[in-house]
């Protein structure tokens, strides 16, 4: 709820801004609100979800993001021909709607919310009694490989933004116009429709195929598309219709690959591979670097792609950069990301202790089988609905209270 208030303050300042400094201050508060939500939502989703659909539920966070991007694109397209200040004030002011929906949905007077707040408060007091973890603990060497897991979490969300989608998202209209496309606004809308639609297969695939295969093959596909776009720019004329269509098609395939792999799975990995005692801090670090990379790409893209004085003048050849970064994404997924599909959050500690990313899928299947055997030995198979639900509620309550309380404590 605090994040909603901070975000709304930023939107109000931007909407009412008559000078650039006031607008920048509004952007600061709006960005702070988005940062708070980005740190809290994936943790909340991960720890409230049963393990067999945890990945899909966390991946739905990315789907909500793509819906917002699509709506923004449509609104921008509808207001682009206005000649007064409403051309930019309306798209900004509409963001109040989503902040209001989230704020109302988090009604703290509801009995369930009050019970959750009591549980968080209790967990916070227990954590304070045992001593608070620090950000230094995120990088300590230990048998649980905390430092490796922290660096993996940060790297996943960083590479997610360095893959090139931010370039199209923030500079796509200008890029398509420079590529000779007659209606670049419409093409941007089409690309965003593809991104939103293709996130749904990713939500399904993260539990069907696992995390590693999606990240690996998604990065390979994006890399191939990016290199082809850059090569087309060198080999053909911008005025030829066929290359224009080919570039649009490749950009759509690029976004489809991202939306079904790195987009949703990028949020799943940090929310589940980190131990409870440092989970909130690691996720906050990862999200901070994520937004830093978003800013860096957005800031640098015009200077790299434009051909004015002091610019690099790369044009579409900038996709050589994105082809290289997505190739790095593929190597990172192959050698650094473990397979965590179907594992309880507690089993991931054991996975890191006794396997490597290359052997994690096989060892994970062993852990899942052992878990089923233990449940059968305890006689839970016949009363799985009641017993497992009770255990899940205890596990989820402790985990949720622990990590969310850590976020609350770190914000104080």
TrEMBL record:
Segments traversing the membrane: 27-44, 56-75, 146-173, 185-207, 214-235, 247-270, 282-304, 316-337
Membrane topology (UniProt): Multi-pass membrane protein
Keyword entries, A-Z: Membrane, Sugar transport, Transmembrane, Transmembrane helix, Transport
The name this protein goes by in its record: High-affinity glucose transporter SNF3
Compartments where located: Membrane
Keyword Membrane applies: yes
GO molecular function annotations of the record: carbohydrate:proton symporter activity
Family note: Belongs to the major facilitator superfamily. Sugar transporter (TC 2.A.1.1) family.
A single cellular component GO annotation: membrane
Residues covered by the Major facilitator superfamily (MFS) profile domain: 1-341
Keyword set includes Transmembrane helix: yes
Cross-referenced InterPro entries: MFS_dom (IPR020846), MFS_sugar_transport-like (IPR005828), MFS_Sugar_Transporters (IPR050360), MFS_trans_sf (IPR036259), Sugar/inositol_transpt (IPR003663), Sugar_transporter_CS (IPR005829)
Domain of life: Eukaryota
Catalytic activity: myo-inositol(out) + H(+)(out) = myo-inositol(in) + H(+)(in)
